[in-house]
């Protein structure tokens, strides 16, 4: 018996070309994207896409015949099961397991495609369900892998949304096409061209209109300004501000790759040497402390709201007047460190470092913006001097293993011997201890605890346990190869929710600094050693020409662990396997600004007048630094300055003198030799000094300081930007956006009706136009209620409508056809019929169709598509 057909070969070809191929193209892209993130797929996206295309094409052709789905699907399942059994019997090699996994993947993809092909061929509502499924899956993928940036969000959703609209429209278009018509190719082609134009305009308009909303999502949940070099599922230890400068991020997440730049960020002079006074003793420069770990997003974050004994000093150097000092002695108190401590200075010269960024070795407690010598102002944007409460036991040499250098080995051994005096943490504040030893309580972290105890089984003191962990990362496997390796591209687990730290420690053993630091943090905490992560820049002593000077490049942005020792405070401890590329500078270190100018006068106040011709700036001054002595007054004093040689700056930019306006807060500094011998005495006041110095006094630098209102606004923006990503909230918001799209999709028939209805009721005095508008509204209304014209002629359709609903559609149709095809004018009687037809028609139809039926049918997008795709 010959099996009957449901679709002609023309319709099958249309389904293959217009439905199957675009779907397969989208799935090829999806498989490629998934293979970048899930290692279990083994980067076979081309083969996996081919599985889907084969299943989809075969199913589409197969179900063009009168086969039942359940019966044939059961037969297909039996065939695949027999193939699996046969494969298991034939393949008995060591590769059998991998082949089996590949067969599982093939079965899953092929069967899914088979169901999609059936849906395209037989199920009218399937395209809507399929589109919703793709959108939901895209939301889940975006929430786990994409950057929270406006461009990334639009780029992630645009293809799927375009495909969803396309597939719903095209499936209905194919369903309504006349298979026996001679011009079906032209029928399909012209509608596809028209649809493509409308869809492009619609999507462009929609995303343009909602672009600000996407940017709002980026600002609220994206954490920071987008990293200039961040791509795909990757991380960077720095972020870029709008002005092109960079700063450290206040959070870092474990991802599949790390992006590094090679540009020079800043140069620093660190006045810290070994006891011989000659050998530099470098220290890491700290920006943030990460004390919180989000297990859902696997992100290390700041927790200033709950962190006990917060010893992070984080001023904004750009808001401090030039040569004035801001200090915070509470951070020294919060270190609880009294043993082997001293005050150390560091001068930081910014190249690309953000004007608001403050970096210094821990623990910093003072910041003083300083001037940049004129000959170096093209090289360095700004500078500041930091003071730190530094431990004698802390050093970059304490972090690395200085094998082969006897003096450094002895230095390191002495530090370790001192720290071995700490046997336990008894007597430590319970809140402090519990906070810095907290770790999640689940199976993944129990494995980390077991490993930590195994590694440190023979270590008795906290420092020896730390060294055991460091040595574990430096150990070799049974083949004499390094057990762990440094990698900027460590990959991620095949299961998205799996712990990346466990994957790093127990499987691939490759990672960058955040992986080593995170693993070390939890192993130390598992052993009861208080610890936290620090982020900033690692310091490398590459040159012997200028001892104490260090160059910091983007790829030196770093994360490491700090461990706490009672009495001695926090100690830097870095277990990251050194990256050879980071040790080498991307360019030769240049000559530092060695010839510092002596500043004699610094006046802080407001501009009262600017004479751009005479190069004079009048100020009202309350604070004055003169020969390193600080003077203040309760009433402002007038100061006239000669700015003919002055450099005027605002943050990182140099601006003309005309940029100074009345009321601006500025700092004016003078290095003029004429002030050198005009010294201050113990009896001098600010007023007496003003009488001594020249009038106007020559100044060399003028720095514009933002007002408090702008400062408060920036602080609020920074707090908003520093919010960690709430992925659950992000997912719900994305689902809400998809739900809104679906709702708008189903409400589209009603919106079209509102438009047609308003046009039909409009009285513009043109009877022909009125007839056209009323016919279009009436025919659309009938079509949406399920009474389509189909292949009937206009008069036949009108007579059938009158018979069913008791309307007077037929006389109106005759007048409409006359208005459309004849050049003769309508008679007054005909114009009257046109004028009174529409309202009576709608009222009569509504009497015959219950409201519930009308409501349900107006949600049917297929009736709408059918109206616009049928021949007119």
TrEMBL record:
Biased composition (Basic and acidic residues): 228-252
PANTHER family assigned to the protein according to its UniProt record, in alphabetical order: PROTEIN-GLUTAMINE GAMMA-GLUTAMYLTRANSFERASE
SUPFAM superfamilies reported for this sequence: Cysteine proteinases
Domain Transglutaminase-like: 505-577
Keyword hit for Transmembrane helix: yes
Descriptive protein name: Transglutaminase domain-containing protein
Source organism of the structure: Ilyomonas limi
Keyword Membrane annotated: yes
Start and end residues of each stretch annotated as Disordered: 227-252
Keywords: Membrane, Transmembrane, Transmembrane helix
Gene3D superfamilies xref list: 3.10.620.30
Regions crossing the membrane: 12-29, 49-65, 72-91, 97-116, 123-142, 148-171, 192-210, 730-756
